[in-house]
Amino acid sequence: MEAKVILPAEWHPQSAVQLTWPHEGTDWAPIIDEVVPCFVAIAKEIIKREMLLVVCPDEAMVRAQLGDVDYSRVIFREMETNDTWARDHGGISVFDGAQAAVYDFVFNGWGMKFAANYDNLITRKLFHTKTFSEEVIPVNMQPIVLEGGSIESDGEGTLLTTVECLSSVNRNEYLGQEQLEYHLKEIFGLDRILWLESGYLAGDDTDSHVDTLARFCSPDTIAYVQCTDEGDEHFEELQEMEQELKAFTRKDGKPYNLVPLPMADKVEWEGERLPATYANFLIINGAVLVPFYNSPKDEVAKTALQQAFPDREIVGVNCLPLIKQHGSLHCVTMQYPEGFVISLSKEK
């Protein structure tokens, strides 16, 4: 019998989380002093619980910004970068039978909206610099364009995604939805795909990444953005998305346990509404890091996620600086399962 590919869920035990660090050569330049503390806060929470992999052009600069942390848990890899969205340019980890593998998909700046010539090479360079364990094999997934923020796995053969993103212009528009589904099932060993046809956030550059809208918390639980304000521009789309989620069933035919997250308060910058969302949380070893937006709704979202993750600490991180570039906490991170990333002791 052929070994089955498994796309592990985010709650699978992790070896490390990748951050691709902001610098003056990125779009963060005008607000670099504002966004760096956000990255530092995320980094420190990760370091408490697992290894942190920092991709950056200048290790000394990042060390000065991080300050006094446990550097035995930090791996630096110096290379040129365009931007900081590790969720979308980072490698995607799978288990192919007993073999650990990292898929390196094409990253083209969300359908060639932004420069990505350096970021598309990051995963390949991480292999060349022996960042991954010797047992992990690299898999070049060209010519498929795929970003990590566009897919959600329950770790048991079900994928949650959006029609809007995967079929969008300058990604894989040469493939119809049926062809896309076939390829995704082959690549990730999937039994089925749950396609969301509704849902979006104003100011989103990703064409409706699912990690801004709805997330698996366990194989039977999905947290999602709920909009109850009829005057909000998102009301109709998110109401339709909610109905889709209610109609989805698990493999055994039972409905999912749905955990509604509040629609974040309206945040604007330079006259534009930003895609603030509480669905953009990161699951790490023993904790869930949740984006906060200096709003009373922060605690509402934290309470809801504590119910979804009763055995994990829920930690809020101020992400108002992040959404000024139209992303949030999950978007700037990429996790790697236990055994995937080397330990510093092996590197020396």
Automatic annotation (TrEMBL):
Keyword Hydrolase: yes
Gene3D superfamilies: L-arginine/glycine Amidinotransferase, Chain A (3.75.10.10)
Any Gene Ontology biological process: putrescine biosynthetic process
Alphabetized UniProt keyword annotations: Hydrolase
A molecular-function term among this protein's GO annotations: protein-arginine deiminase activity
Matching InterPro entries: Peptidyl-Arg-deiminase_porph
Keyword hit for Hydrolase: yes
Entry protein name: Agmatine deiminase
